[in-house]
Amino acid sequence: MKFEDLLLEIGGFGRFQIFILFILCLPRVNLPMHFLLHNFLAATPSHHCAIPHQQAFVNLTTEEVLLISIPRDPDGTFRSCEMFSQPQFQLLLNSSLQPENNSIIQQCQYGWVYDHSQFTSTISTQWDLVCEQRGLNQATATFFFIGVTMGAVVFGYLSDRFGRKAMLLLSLVGSIIFGMLSAASVSYSMLVITRTLTGVALSGVSLIVLPLGMEWVDIQHRTFSGILTSIFWSIGNMLLAMVAYLVREWHWLVVAVTGPCLLSIVCLWWVPESARWLIANGKVKQAHRHLLRCARMNGRKDFTVSPEALRRMVTDKKPGGSYSYISLFRTPVLRKISLCSGAVWFGVAFSYYGMSLNLTSFGLNMYLSQFVFGIIEIPAKMIMYVLVNRVGRRQSQAWSLILTGLCIGANVLIPTSFTSLRSVVAIMGKGFSEAAFTTIFLYTSELYPTVLRQNGMGYTSFVARLGGSLAPLVFLLDEVWRSLPEVTYCGVAVCCGLVAFLLPETLNVRLPEGIEDVE
């Protein structure tokens, strides 16, 4: 007897599964509020060099002081990172005659003055992460995703070794501790360290929630449960826009997005360990107890199964704890799956975060962009629910990622004056990007066997977070060529989308239990 047959007997998608999925959706809401927090945490408002007070400025207005102290660009805006070494009083007579002598222009010497109309404070304004320090600002997101990358390796192994539920609880507790420490940061170094550790902890939530829910659901409802769980990511996206709009001070914003983890910890009490994992690791008595509870909640009171029957279901001779990441590359089919899925995950994450962390370049208000980018993901998921069941996982994955790249590339060609068209193309690209992300989570959990599923998810999540780590740094390439970041995102997305065609199809295929099922 296979576990899939057992699920059909106890109810493969009844009240028990729906109850568990909704509880697991709570931490899912919290993830984008941290993963995309950089948009608001590190937002850089308009700024200019601070100008020391001089006696000659007594009778001048603020605008006149700026006029004689800070050079202007051809479009008339004051430069953010430069000032005149001496006041240029002649500009009061004719402000259009900008000095051509660059020797009188220097970098800001006395700090910066920021526009606080939109943000009370951000890490950019608190620690002056602008101009020459701009790279440190972008690096904040990179350090967070480095933490997520490390967490993917750690929690992928530990959840296969010690169980899904225990590691999910550990990751939620860690998220609260390090999230609150981030909010209390008194220096940039402290913030970087605590945000990195927050990323490590949240990686466990990202990694475990979907497989834990999927392992309780039958084949027919596997896609639905995956889409349902991912919709709550989009809800978190929209909630982030609303919370950030209401909380403009970065310390309290971090507290606001971390607090909901407490509710997830309380609700986790009612979530059982994965019966698949318990059986695969020989913990038959616990699995038996959870299966009976599932049958009762689903109204299958006549269900009976002996612990001895469950022992016979163990499909592999090796104990679950003796597998490692090396096992993903030992056999030929698994090796091909691991290499190709790793490439696809990199492309999906790289392009997704390339768009999600670039809210200001599509012609919309950043809060509105965040909300619209979240809401467009829901119809994208609904469409993918139909497509993955009609045309299959492989085609859906490949084309959604390729179309993401093409939308990013199209905005390189569309002039910046066509703001409405650029916004529409960007929103379409965000929809395709989320469709690719939704599919890859579902697809990967079906490609790997139970005994290696969390190792597989850990490895692919590790590669994805490398993509997420690099995505914010690519924005700095605009100093080489303004469109180079978009061209990079486009090229990577299209190439990785083509790699998806090399993966096997998993539509209506049983979840593999052991390595021999895959081979």
UniProtKB/TrEMBL annotation:
InterPro entries: MFS_dom (IPR020846), MFS_sugar_transport-like (IPR005828), MFS_trans_sf (IPR036259). GO terms for cellular component: apical plasma membrane; basolateral plasma membrane. It holds the Pfam family Sugar_tr. The chain crosses the membrane at residues 139-159, 166-186, 192-212, 224-246, 252-271, 337-355, 367-387, 399-418. Keywords: Cell membrane, Ion transport, Membrane, Transmembrane, Transmembrane helix, Transport. GO terms for molecular function: organic anion transmembrane transporter activity; prostaglandin transmembrane transporter activity. The keyword Transcription regulation does not apply. Residues 87-508 form the Major facilitator superfamily (MFS) profile domain. It is found in: Apical cell membrane; Basolateral cell membrane. It is a multi-pass membrane protein. It catalyses: 2-oxoglutarate(in) = 2-oxoglutarate(out); GMP(in) = GMP(out); urate(out) = urate(in); 3',5'-cyclic AMP(in) = 3',5'-cyclic AMP(out). It comes from the Eukaryota. Its main location: membrane. The keyword S-adenosyl-L-methionine does not apply. One of its GO terms (biological process) is monoatomic ion transport. CDD domains: MFS_SLC22A7_OAT2. Belongs to the major facilitator (TC 2.A.1) superfamily. Organic cation transporter (TC 2.A.1.19) family. This is Solute carrier family 22 member 7. It comes from Mesitornis unicolor (brown roatelo). The lineage of its organism: Eukaryota, Metazoa, Chordata, Craniata, Vertebrata.
